[in-house]
Amino acid sequence: MKRDTSYAAVMARKNEIMKASMGIDYDEFVHSPIAFDYEGMMRRASFPLDEIIRIQRETKVGDTPLFELKRLTAAVRHTSEPGKGARIFVKDEAANASGSFKARRASVALFEAMRKGYKGVCAATSGNYGAAVASQAAQRGLKAIILQEVFDSRGIGQPEIVEKGRACEAYGAEVLKLSVGPELFYNLLLTLEDTGFFNASLYTPFGIAGVETLGTEIVSQVRQLCGRDPDVVIATHAGGGNVTGTARGLIKAGAKNTRMVACSVDLSGLHMASDRDFNRKSFTTGHTGFGIPFATWPDRVDVPRNAARSLRYMDEYHLVTQGEVFYVTELLTKMEGLERGPAGNTSLTSAVALAREMPEDAIIVVQETEYTGAGKHHNSQLDFARKNGIEVRFGDPKDNKPGERIVIPQHLEQIRGRPQLLENLRTSYIKSAAKAYDIAKWDDYDKNFVAEDMKVSRDWLNSKLDSF
Amino acid sequence: MAKVSHGTWVEIESVVLTPSERAPQIPDDTRATPYMLKVSGFLESDALLGEDVAIKTLIGRTLKGKLITVNPSYTHSFGSTVEELLRIGTEETQQ
Question: What CATH architecture is A57-99+209-419?
Answer without folding.
Answer: 3-Layer(aba) Sandwich (3.40)
